[in-house]
Amino acid sequence: MESIVRSLAGGVMLPAAAAGRSRRRSEVACCCRASVRGGVSASMSTADRRQLVGGGGVDELRYGRSDDTAAVVVGEERAVATNGRAPAVGVGASSVVERLRAVAEAAADRVEMHDIIGKQRDNWNHLLLHSTNSLALAASVMAALAPASAGLIALKASAGVLLASAAVTMAVANKIQPSQLAEEQRNATRLWRQLERDVRATLELTPAPTNADVVDAMDRVLALDVAYPLPLLPGMLDKFPDAVEPTRWWPDKKQHAPIIKPSSKATNGGVRRAAIGGNGWSQELEQEMRGILRVVKAKDEKQFVSDGKLILKVNKGLAVAGPALAGTAALAAAFIGSGEAGSWASGVAVLGGSLAAVVNTVEHGCQVGMVFELCRNVAGYYRKIQEDIEANLEEADVERRENGEVFETKVALKLGRRPSDLKHFREMASPAVEDEDIKDFAGKLF
């Protein structure tokens, strides 16, 4: 009898227990779905999630696994976005990155263009040099043989035409200075490669690039385009300028980031002295930089500007002498065999053609225009070092400067020295030292 009652009781309770378990499974599944959809499951442990879906059957287990994977991926993306700094706005950050990539691609394209054009203009220099010399020397030989030849008229006419062609070719080559054009493109290629590396480093190392990075990159692009134009005509740089100035291929940073000069109170009082010593800067390092600034301005830049002026004068003389000699020889060739004038006309034509070839070889074979451009570029190199030092020294807040130790190393490398070699420039910052007393140059690289 008792067994019958127990069996009946068990039959009555089993549906209730089954219903309770079903309700619990439904509540757990709903809770799991809600937590996963709300992003809460990313913070739950793996064991807890297994307990939530463990009693819900095959369908709930599959659903829990898929949502769990999605939640983990979302959590990882959020962790990457907030790693080290606050995430930027999605659309704005993407726009900045794409603009920087566009600048990097443009810089890479400019590298290829300047490299190709540089090789082309170097070929121009060799072609014009050898062809002009061949014209002048062949004409000189014809002028020498004409008086004693039966074909006098043919030889003197040929000599005159060749000498006139040599004069025109020399004038064109002296106007455009192919060796100088090639040097411009070589330097431009190097600077465009540097810009591309800097932009790509910004993309790789900066967690969230800003619009300021884009503006700085664009300014550098425009400054390089102005300093080293691609077209030959119009837009070619003046090869014989009235004043020799260092080449400038970088933008003026003060236009976008005005430097706050320290007040007299901060400069002369304890506030300024207290500020020095942070971010790798010290009073001794400032004195080093001021001394280097003075030496670079008084010696290095001045020396290369003076050399550029001297080379420019020599190049102007050669540029005028070559076509003048060839033209004079062409006129003399027209009088060969003409009575009394014919006796000396042949000698003038031969001498003029030979000297024209010599002058052309000195000017374009020695690449005088390239040497002048090199002097301007090196002077610009030292001018940029000066502006970098001034920008840091004029910044009152040392925390806004570049790290002092890093900056000292960069300056030393640009000057071709060790950082320890810069210490003896401290005394050059003293007003008691005159510019005439400075004997050593700051740079050893050039």
From TrEMBL:
Instruction: Read off the InterPro entries from this record.
Output: Chloroplast_duf
Q: Which domain of life is it from?
A: Eukaryota
The record's listing under Pfam families reads:
Chloroplast_duf
Which named protein is this?
A: F-box protein
Which source organism does the UniProt entry give?
Answer: Zizania palustris (Northern wild rice)
